[in-house]
User: Fold this.
Amino acid sequence: MGYASWAVTLAVVLVAVVSLKIFINVITINGLNNRFIKKMKPSRIYISSPHMGGFEQKYVQEAFDTNWIGPEGLNLNGFEHDLEDYLDQNSFVGALSSGTAAIHLGLILLGVKAGDEVICQSMTFSASANPILYQGAIPIFIDSEPETWNLCPLALEEAIVDRISKGKKPKAIIAVHLYGVPYKVDEIRIVADKYGIPILEDAAEALGSSYRGQKCGTFGDIGVLSFNGNKIITTSGGGAIVTHSAALKEKALFYATQSRDNAPHYQHSEIGYNYRMSNICAGIGRGQMEVLDDHVALRRAMHDFYVDLFQDIDTVTVFSVPNADYFANYWLSAIVLEPNSVKEIDRESLRLAFEDANIECRPLWKPMHLQPIFEKYPYYGGTVAETLFENGLCLPSGSNLSDEERLRISEVVKNYFK
Ligand SMILES: *Cc1c(COP(=O)(O)O)cnc(C)c1O
Assistant:
């Protein structure tokens, strides 16, 4: 063979090897891709995620354009005004950095000091109770009643009578509207007034809920709202204190901005806090107020969806208001399950079935009297809250869930209970 044919053969072999290599690469990549696609989970469905209305950035832009970036400015005034209009009832609203800050300032305004006792609904988020400890006060936890899952008026009175007999009248009552379902407003007010104890109304989950036509947030001697990222409207993080006098609102804002006395220099006669909302966050809040009623309607539609989904499953109850006096925003839709060991039905295995489908669900709030940080404090009542915690589950409830996501949720439920 001459050099020419050697060269041709070599070239052919080279081309063959390179092609084979490319071929193998393509096969492998395709294989990996296929395996990857098969394994890729559908996107996560959250319990409650932020849902922007569309005009939030306009208000934020105004803050930038006018350089009101700090905790002062038109958005703050505007947001507070929007909330006062919405709540009505002669409300004076102060926008703060969080709902927790609002509860803390609420306790301070109600005169809670170190060593005082403060009554608190046990079944709630820890932020309802932590500020009691910030003040060096002592929490007294109370069971729920089964209708609204909130403060039980009977256990409340029992506790007050017992604490008074032990020598201390509680300084305040923290009542919560869990998941946006109003607490027994009339019954709790009667007990509170009978003993002359003010109510700090934790309406963090209940903006848009009402009782007999009156908005939640306005029933307490002081009310609290939250605009955390997971709440019915959000300012990315924030809260508000609701008072019934201009003077009390002013006092709240005085504490929230470092308790500066009226002097040209920085002068302080009281402990101050840095709890004011920023004008940027308030801009988000103004945009969110435009869609609050839509969000309430959409969350209520999610609740309807679950009522429908579970209507033929008699071991599941969807948490709903007791009667037409109550109007819930249904911030979160929740169910309680009757566990059945024969059919292997319980709260945790249902939660895991949802988790397998990449759907977030969460047990109800674990009662405070069962929490390591709080278990040493007094507790009054039975096992209503504890049983709810054992068998209850919060389901995806956002105002921004799609039909496709609802379908995925219903498939999990149908497979689990089939
Ligand atoms: C969210 C929440 C709070 C706290 O509000 P933040 O704005 O997150 O500080 C307080 N109480 C209850 C019941 C809540 O759900």
About this structure: The chain has a mean pLDDT of 93. Residues 98-100, 124-125, 127-128, 176, 202, 204-205, 226, 228, 239 surround pyridoxal-5'-phosphate (CB under 6 Å). Residues 3-39 form the longest helix (37 residues).
